[in-house]
Target: TfoX/Sxy family protein
Amino acid sequence: MKKALPSIVESTINRCLPLGDVRARAMFGGYGLYIEDVMFGLEADNLLYLKADKETEQHFIDAHCTPFTYQGKTAPVKMSYWTVPSVAADNQKEYLIWIERAVAAGKRARQKRPKKTKG
Model:
């Protein structure tokens, strides 16, 4: 029997449908969210975090968002995922703008990774 998705994941999928096929994949006790095989979001503890990079991080800071962090072996580790800004919570147009920024950041991150070689 397939486990039901958390409501925040279901809601994100539904709200992102205008942008294309959205998938959720279980990972590390939460879910990764993907559009076009690009991870743009992360659900953890029933919160949605969006992908950011050097180009977009300041937008999240200016919107008073908080980064996703987890406890590493010796200190907290900050990842490049930030909470969704409150301005986007009830505004679908604004929400999609932030999702598109996250997808773009995810695509840039993929381009920077070295290609995997077979064999």
